[in-house]
Amino acid sequence: MRIARPRAAKMFAAVLAIGLIATGCASERDDEESGDDGQPFVFGAPGDPASLDPSLASDGETFRVTRQAFETLLDHEPGGTELVGGLAHTWSSNEAGTEWTFELEEGVTFHDGSELTAEVICQNFDRWYNWSGTYQNTTISYYWQTVFGGFAQNESEETPDPNYVGCSAPEELTAVIEVAEPSANYPGGFSLQAFAIHSPDAIEAYEQDEASGEGENITFPGYSQEAGTVAGSGPFEVTDWNKGNGEVTLTAFDDYWGDTEAGVDELVFRTIPEESARRQALQAGDIQGYDLVAPADVTTLEDEGFQVPVRGVFNLLYLGITQESNPALETLEVRQALAHALDRQNIVDAQLPEGGVVATQFMPDTVAGYSEDVTTYDYDPDLARELLAEAGEEDLTLDFCYPTEVTRPYMPAPADIYELLRADLEEVGVTVNPVPLKWNPDYTETTRDGGCNIYLLGWTGDFNDGFNFLGTWFAGYQKEWGFENEELFDLLSQAETEPDEATRVGLYEQVNEAVMDFLPGVPISSSPPSIAFSADVNPPTVSPLTQENFAEVSFK
Amino acid sequence: MLRLIVRRLLQLIPTLLGLTVLLFLWIHRLPGGPASALLGERATEADRRQMEEALGLDQPMWVQYGRWMERLVQLDLGNSVRTGQPVWEEFTLRFPATVELAVTGILIAVVVGIPLGYFAARRRGGWLDVTAVSASLVGVCIPVFFLAFLLRAVFAVNLGWLPSVGRQSTGIDATEVTGFFVLDGILTGEFDASWDALEHLILPGVALASIPLAVVVRITRASVLDVLGEDYVRTAESKGLKQRVVRGRHVMRNALLPVITTVGLLTGSLLSGAVLTESVFSFNGIGSFIRTAIDIRDYPVLMGFILFIAVIYVVINLLVDLAYSLIDPRVRVN
After folding, report:
1. Nearest-CA distance from B17 to chain A in Å?
2. Interchain pair A273, B288: CB under 8 A
3. Which residues cross the membrane (chain B) (predicted)?
4. pLDDT tens-digit readout, A199-238
5. Is B179 in contact with A244 (Cβ distance < 8 A)?
6. What pLDDT does A19 receive?
7. Which of B76, B79, B91, B170 would best serve as a mutation to test chain A binding (most A beta carbons within 10 A)?
8. Nearest CB to A213 within list B32, B79, B181
9. Which residues pair with A358 in a beta bridge?
10. Coil vs helix vs strand at A531
């Protein structure tokens, strides 16, 4: 006892010393962070980018970064979904919708000093069209294959036929892109980050550093994994990718041609996968903004003085029904009963952030082609019970799949939404077997393979064309829906290849009405994913497409 | 000694070979696959078939295994399906973060845990003993993500003493030499960068140490209690030896043997990826990388990682055995 006392005292002193050092360094941290002019704007992103070359990517986290450095021929209006000029100030197509002419902006300079011309546009498109080997893997060229089909020389039978025919430059600032068949993907597809325009010198450098490999051993090109080679024309240029610390740094580009010059010298995207960690990093002042705020945190953050601007809606959450998986679901009355059983307003009120709305059809009302005349299915449990009785399905039992450990922009808390829907269905006498599955790949694969009776899924649009929503689900037979409806498929196919926009929109309205009569699933809601910023910054205009332009950000 | 080391390393070869066959079959039998995972909710059936063909996943299992082994014998672990970068590069990029964190965690566990366990045993039934045993129970029970949340809320958000996430502050001027940020700052004379990296280690280090600390306290306490009851301790005391000698030479030296084994195993488990701690603190180490790899069934990363960890465990076990022989003369004799 006597001997130990001095030791205990020493230990206590050591702990005290560590505490004092920590306190001392804390005051140092505070001094460092007191707003100086060159302070970087740090944004907390939920995931790492996959590549610094947007042509090779198909994920939102890559595009969030590259959008600040690369520009596309067309863009979307700030805060909206309408197409506006990007690198092209005007655009038009021939009557058949197979020749797209772009008049380019003058004086556009890339980060490496080269100039934008129509030849550069063609160089970019021809690069993608002539991709071979590893580049024909959908990991790398997903969007090219989705929008322009295959390549000059397809190397797999599974690769679609090319729809891209060629590009010409009749004048220095006039580029013409020709496609074989008209498609609803044009002109919206020209606004996708995957088709952002690269500097001609950078493209030459890329060719020295090709992707390689075979089988699962694909190597992404080195230039796409470190700053220094990629060069776009945006208000920021990529200057560092510190993978060890999960940070991409972009620096303001002094020779930017556009009106919106960068409001901060340095923009940093820092990867913080956990939502609560992003929130606490914002509260601690380690970052100045983050995306995918949990709905439950919105009020807390606002009360603490943080800014949580509301985005417009451009997504859809639906209850999918796999008709083939259970004969009862092939009966229209049963599907109608399910729709009437669900209190969708309650889900919007209880589970979705401000700005969420009940969906009446398979697209939000911000998309051209939304119809005011669709059949609607109000919450009516009595009617649901009657319909089930009429169909002879009073003892209906359904496997209800829902994803775990995931937050989607259209579905912030899947398990909570599932619980509300389950309670609604059980209220009308349906027995629900819960099937929780890990999001990726278990859930996505099971639902896509038709392995669930009913399930929760959704979609966030890429651009404002109805086919980007309706075509995703109803362009043909899909196991996840498990039905054949040639009339519906033909109508949508007609809409997809209709070159006249007004006629196409009219066809989408008809498709929406036909879909809601047939009721292959129940659209539940559209809701804006929340984004938060600290009080001392002027945030960017928030976008329903989650395409924020961080050049608009500045410190107050 | 050298023969022991060589023999242990040679034993590794058949173990790893068997492990690769079992793991390859098991991992490739998991539901879902990288094709679906990479394509996500947007993919069609045709997209998935095309991706599987491109990734070589449409080939028979033995062909896939053969390809993988062919690369392995050339010391090529393949490339990550997700990042497209060599698995070995991904590991070397992230391993320093994991080592820094594991060392911090284990240091806290040892420096605090062994004295605490010792004093708890010496004052059995006293307030220190009761507090240490209760606290270690809490340490084992409290979920890491919750502890992380609490630590960040108190020390980062409310007090503002420590950074909330990451390995280094944004914008700090630091030169990377080895990837060990603390060490790099010392090597390059950028001591502010070292200090900054240390600050970033404190909260995740404490969170990571919670379970090992509890284990070390309990094992040390139990082991010291056992040794205190031994005849040779009583004999030493009755001979009138000084307490310092009795404690150091007779009690601690014998009581530390099980503690060393435990610390060795704990170090192995921390190095194999403090998955949750790294994820919740956005600490870009192997743990958070593996978590993503499991999610998307990144086969080459998973296979490479498991082999890597097997080697680490064998090496750590070897080091533990060597440490035993230093402390316990009987091991040397055997």
Report:
1. 21
2. yes
3. 9-27, 101-121, 133-155, 201-219, 255-281, 301-324
4. 999 999 888 776 555 544 556 788 888 898 999 999 999 9
5. yes
6. 43
7. B170
8. B79
9. A525
10. strand
Residue B305: predicted pLDDT? 83
Assess B11–A contact: CB distance below 8 Å, yes or no: no
- A23 to chain B, any CB pair closer than 8 A? The answer is yes
DSSP string, A230-267: ----SSEEEEEEETTTTEEEEEE-TT--SS---SSSEE
Q: Could A284 and B288 be called an inter-chain contact, meaning their C-beta atoms sit closer than 8 Å?
A: no
Residues in chain B with CB shorter than 8 Å from the CB of A446 are: 31
Specify the residue for token string 């070359």. Answer: A53
B94-162+200-333 has CATH 3.30.70.3270 classification = no
User: In residues, how long is chain B?
Assistant: 334
pLDDT of B172 reads: 80
Measured CA to CA, the distance from residue A268 to residue A249 in angstroms comes to 4
Of 3.40.190.170, 1.10.10.10, 3.40.50.300, 3.10.105.10, the CATH number of A315-526 is 3.10.105.10
Domain definitions of chain B by residue range: 2-73, 94-162+200-333
Q: CB contacts < 8 Å between A and B, how many?
A: 209
pLDDT at A144 over 70: yes
- pLDDT of residue B153 exceeding 50, the answer is yes
- Provide, as residue numbers in chain B, all residues whose Cβ is less than 8 Å from the Cβ of A60: none
How much is the mean pLDDT over chain B?
82
Within 8 A of B162 by CB-CB distance, chain A residues are 22, 26, 29
How far, in Å, CA of B279 to CA of A236, rounded?
29
Please write the tens of the pLDDT for every residue from A439-472: 766 787 788 888 899 999 998 888 888 998 998 8
Q: Which residue in chain B is spatially nearest to A275 when comparing CA positions?
A: B280
Q: A277–B282: do the CB atoms touch at under 8 Å?
A: yes
pLDDT band for A54, please (50, 70, 90 cuts). very high
Sign of CA dihedral A42, A46, A51, A57: negative
Q: Alpha-carbon distance B215 to B208, whole Å?
A: 12
A448 interfaces chain B, CB cutoff of 8 Å: yes
Whole-angstrom distance, CA of residue A187 vs CA of residue A196: 14
| Cβ-proximal residues to B271 (8 Å cutoff; 6+ apart), any chain | B98, B99, B102, B309, B312, B316
Q: Which CATH number is correct for A7-273+532-555, 3.90.1150.10, 2.30.40.10, 3.90.1010.10, 3.40.190.10?
A: 3.40.190.10
